[in-house]
Amino acid sequence: MSERYDVIGIGNAIVDVLARAEDDFLVKHGMAKGGMALIDETRAEAIYAAMGPAIEISGGSAANTIVGVASFGGRAAFVGTVKDDTLGGVFMHDIRAANVSFSTPPFQNGPSTARSYILVTPDGERTMNTYLGAAQLLSATEVTEAEIAAAKVTYLEGYLWDPQNAKDAFVKAARIAHRAKRTVALTLSDAFCVDRYRDEFRALVENGTVDLLFANESELKSLYQTADFDSAVAALRKDARLAVVTRSEKGALVVTPEKIEAVDAFPVEEVVDTTGAGDLFAAGFLHGFARSLPHATSARLGALAAAEVISHLGARPERKLVELAREKKLLP
Amino acid sequence: MSERYDVIGIGNAIVDVLARAEDDFLVKHGMAKGGMALIDETRAEAIYAAMGPAIEISGGSAANTIVGVASFGGRAAFVGTVKDDTLGGVFMHDIRAANVSFSTPPFQNGPSTARSYILVTPDGERTMNTYLGAAQLLSATEVTEAEIAAAKVTYLEGYLWDPQNAKDAFVKAARIAHRAKRTVALTLSDAFCVDRYRDEFRALVENGTVDLLFANESELKSLYQTADFDSAVAALRKDARLAVVTRSEKGALVVTPEKIEAVDAFPVEEVVDTTGAGDLFAAGFLHGFARSLPHATSARLGALAAAEVISHLGARPERKLVELAREKKLLP
C-alpha cells in the first residue's frame, strides 16, 4: 500500500461551545474542574441554558491533533462521524478547510452532531461536558484498510473506549495498521477516562497494540494508580516502547526503555484557554515523528503548538504552525 | 410608560462566521475590503466552501451594540428575527446570556437564520458578506409600543433600510419613541449602505427623526458626498442635533451645533480583528448618554469598548466592560 498520509486520526467529531465561567459556576453545576464528563441531551440543554455567551468552534481531541499536523504541513486524514445537520456541516467544513482529508459520510438520521460545552475559568483552565450524539455511532464500518494502511501513523484517542462500537473501530484500525507495518499511537485523553478503562489501556501498551503513548501527568498517575510522578514514569518505562508525558509549563518527557529526555515548554505571555493543549502537543510530536526527526525535536514542535493554542480561545491553531516552527528553526 | 430599559436596539439578528484570509482571497472573490455586501444563498455557499476554518459567534451590528450596553451594566433590549434553527438558537442563547431582554419569537418556517461570512485579513480589517435570511423578515409587527416606549434610547442600524419591511419597522419604532419623548439614535452602518440610501438618511437627520447619529469617517464622507473630512463635519454640524464621528486610532468627534469635542482612542497592543469596533463604540456612548454623563465621558466609554473588541476575534466583548470602565475611572 503506497503511503499517502503522515498521520490519520480516529476520534470523536465534536463542535466545541466555549464560554467563560467563574469557578463558582463549576461548583454549582457539579463539574470536576479540568475534566471531561459525558452528558446526555437533557443535561446538555440545562448547561447551555445556564452558561454565558459562547462561541462555536470545531473541536474533538484527535481531530484537533490532526488539524495541527496539517498546519505543520503534514499529510493528514481524519475519521469520525457527524450528522448531516448545521453543526455537522461546520465540522466538515472546518476540517477540510484545514487541509485534512475527511471522507466519513455524515448520518442522515439519528442523534445530532456532538457538542462539547466547555467552560473556561479565569485561570485559563477548561472543563468539558460532552454530548456525544452522532460521534458515538462511529463503528468499524467507517475504518477502511485503504485509508489506515496508507498512513505512517494511526492516532487514536482514549475517548473512543467509551462506546463499544467505537472501541471496535479502534481495534480494527490498530490491526490494519500493524499488518501494514505502520505505527499505532494513543492518547489517554483524560484522567477520568483512564479511570474507567485502566486495565484495558495498560494491556494495550504492554501487549504492543500501542507503539506510541501520549499522556499528561494526571493521566499517567491514574494509569499506574500512584500519586508519585516518578514511580509512574518508572512503570511506564517498563511497559512502553515510546511514550511522551506532557507536564504543562514544566515541558515534557520523552520516555523509552533506553532513556528519558526532558524538553522545555515554550513561554506563553498569557494562558487564555488551555483547551487543546495536549491535542496540539501530540500534533507537533506526531509530525516530527512521521518525518523521522529526533524525538527531542518532535517534542519541541509539540511544545510550540501547545503554546500557540493556549494563547487564544479554541482548540485549533490560529497561526500556521509550519511558519512558527520555521521562525524557531525547528523545521526547514 | 415607566422606563425599563436604557437602550433598545433594532437590527439584523446575525451569526458571524469568521475566518482569517489573505488579501488575495478578497480580490479573487470580488470583495470590497472593509465593506459589507449582501449576498444570496448560492453565493453564501460558494464563499463558505472557499474560506478557511471558521468560528461561529453571534453578531449583528445593533445586537453587538446592545450586548455592549448590557456589559457596561445598562438595561438593554433587542428586537430582531431569527429562524427556529441551530444558528437561531445560538443567537437567542448568546444575547439572553449577555443579560439582554430579547423576546422576538423565532420563525418556524421560511429562510434560515442570517449569517455573515467575515474575512479577517492580516491587518485586522474585516470584510463582511451577509446572507440576511430570516433577518430580512423583520417587520413592524415585531416592534411593540410596550418595549420601545419603555426605553430611554431606541437605537437603529442603517442596514435596516435594505428590506422594505424592516424600514417600516424602523419608522414605526422612531414614531413610538418620539411620542413617548424618548431619543432615537441611528448608526449609518456602512459607506456602501449610505451610498444606497443617502437622501433618505440625510432627510432622517435633517427632519429630526434621528436625534443622535453615529458615523465613521467613510460613512460621513459618503453621506455628504465629499472626500474632504472637514467639510463633511461642517455639513453634519448644520444638520444634526448630536452626532458622533469615529475615526479609528484617531479617536472620535462629538459634534453638536454648539461645539466639536475631540476624544482620544485607547491604545491597543495588537489589532486582531476590527469586527464590531463601531458597534462597541456606540455601546459605550449610548450607555453614557442614557446615564446622562457628559458627552466626552460617553465617547471615552465608547473608545474603551472599541479597544477591547478589536483586541480579539469576534464582535462581542470578552471582558465585562463595566469592570474595564471602573479600572479607567470612567464609571463609579
Describe, in plain words, how this protein is organized in 3D.
The structure is a homodimer of 332-residue chains. With 332 residues, the first copy, chain A, is of the alpha/beta class. Chain A has helices at residues 23-28, 41-50, 61-71, 86-97, 145-148, 164-179, 191-206, 217-223, 229-239, 277-290, 295-309, 321-327; strands at 5-10, 14-20, 36-38, 55-59, 76-79, 100-102, 114-120, 126-131, 151-157, 183-187, 212-216, 242-246, 252-255, 260-263. Chain A has a single domain, classed as UDP-N-acetylmuramoyl-L-alanine:D-glutamate ligase (3-Layer(aba) Sandwich), CATH 3.40.1190. Helices cover 39% and strands 21% of the residues of chain A. In chain A, a hairpin with a 5-residue loop joins strand 12 (242-246) and strand 13. In chain A, helix 10 runs antiparallel to helix 11. The relative contact order of chain A is 0.15. Strand 4 of chain A pairs antiparallel with strand 4 of chain B.
List the helices and strands and how they pair.
The structure is a homodimer of 332-residue chains.
Chain A: E1 5-10, E2 14-20, H1 23-28, E3 36-38, H2 41-50, E4 55-59, H3 61-71, E5 76-79, H4 86-97, E6 100-102, E7 114-120, E8 126-131, H5 145-148, E9 151-157, H6 164-179, E10 183-187, H7 191-206, E11 212-216, H8 217-223, H9 229-239, E12 242-246, E13 252-255, E14 260-263, H10 277-290, H11 295-309, H12 321-327
Which terms would index this structure?
homodimer; 5-stranded mixed sheet; 9-stranded mixed sheet; UDP-N-acetylmuramoyl-L-alanine:D-glutamate ligase; alpha/beta; 332 residues; 12 helices
